[in-house]
Amino acid sequence: MKKNSTPLDLNGTGYCASFNFRKTARAVTRLYDMALKESGIRSTQFAILVGIAKSQPVSIGKLGDLLVIDGTTLTRSLQLLQKEELIAISNRAAKRQRFLTLTAKGVHTLARAVPAWRKAQEQFVRTVDRTIG
To answer: In the beta sheet, which residues pair with residue 58?
Structure first.
């Protein structure tokens, strides 16, 4: 491997907010994914199902705004949830919008996941309280 003739000045990059938030987000996601494993869904799917459940029927665009997820990522996630029969996606309606609702299987899956989520949430809050407090 050829050595770089011009060394990079990376001083201070260890304090990069973006890097550290992403690192923290991955750790938090791992905590919730482990807690939700037995329910058969991941934390990202849990968030989408909760978003739909709280606002259904909800347009795909509104859900994306609510969850701050770009359209491409959301579409991929929704296709998987639809394939697993956890959500229903309507045909295009007025203003070319499509609406999302939970199926009975989606409601059942979410109901099974909520207690595990609550335990993970309590663990997270305790950990943060100890760290900050």
So the answer is: 100
Tokens encoding 21: 């938030």
The Cβ of residue 109 has, within 10 Å, a number of other Cβ atoms equal to 22
In sequence order, the 6+-apart residues with CB closer than 8 A to the CB of 122 are: none
pLDDT in the model for residue 120? 95
**Amino acid of residue 12:** G
Interatomic CA distance for residues 120 and 133, integer angstroms: 19
Strand order across the 99-102 sheet:
58-59, 99-102, 87-89
Residue 69: count other Cβ atoms within 10 Å of its Cβ. 19
pTM: 0.84
Residues 48, 70, 98: CA angle, nearest 5 degrees: 65
